[in-house]
């Protein structure tokens, strides 16, 4: 199979295991490209891509922009904080104005769940969801899967623990869908107050003891506490959270086996993970960042129908 079964990338829930495998295989060849002395290919030379970020982002925005430039696309960057959105312009008006400039693809991050799906039904361009509220973040899940496969050789049969703020995390939801479609076992671990009510319906194991979760897994994906999405207090204090669910070197070294440590970033060092763990040889956090560019190049390339 050399074509995706979908016109947009709105979420991992909507794509097949074949789609995921095609993206990961394509990303392998792009990873080779970005490690060459000349890192550019002319694959999307006649394609114009608009990056619409209605929410703050550093790594995802830079990663997409770099992926687009590596593919020789024309890039328009839009940030809502300095736009007419502040004057009351609607999402569709904003996008239609951009599409009037003959844009082929839109990469969008938005605080509202479902914004990318809504857009895909109303505008004539390929839409890539770069994160919609606490719903999905498909390219993060794809780069996480790529990084696990690269490190362990396969995802099928592996045990992945996702630790932390599951309730507010779009990364957790996309990762659960992605890893299950690729045949992994998934466990979520964190305080009861940060577990969504529907979590058991997703077919994942639930654990509230960090040590038990770490002893069970091959890979621990440590999520950031999303204080900016929390309108009430979900735990007494950050210090208490860190004592119960923070990963430090002492705990890591006490395990009976070596596990792989991941983090989607940005890291709150000393909260969910200490610096000596983040920078240890068991961590693949920097590999995740590098792989993000290759995976996003693959997604853009395949959605543009260039395969």
Write the layout of secondary structure elements.
Blueprint: H1 17-34, E1 48-53, H2 59-70, E2 74-79, H3 91-99, E3 105-110, H4 115-122, E4 126-132, H5 138-152, E5 159-163, H6 170-181, E6 185-189, E7 205-207, H7 210-216, E8 219-222, H8 238-245, H9 249-253, E9 260-262, H10 275-278, H11 285-303
Parallel strand pairs: 1-2, 1-3, 3-4, 5-6, 5-8, 6-7, 8-9
Helix pairs in contact: 1-5, 1-11, 2-11, 5-6, 5-11
What does this structure look like?
- This protein is an alpha/beta fold.
- The protein is 38% helix and 15% strand.
- The chain has a five-stranded parallel beta sheet with strand order 7-6-5-8-9, with helices on both faces. Strands 2-1-3-4 form a four-stranded parallel beta sheet, with helices on both faces.
- It is globular and about 55 Å long.
In short:
The protein has 11 helices and 9 strands.
Can you count the helices?
Answer: 11
Radius of gyration: 19 Å
Average the pLDDT over all residues and give the rounded result: 92
Proportion of helical residues: 25-40%
Shape: globular
Q: Which percent range describes the beta-strand content?
A: 5-15%
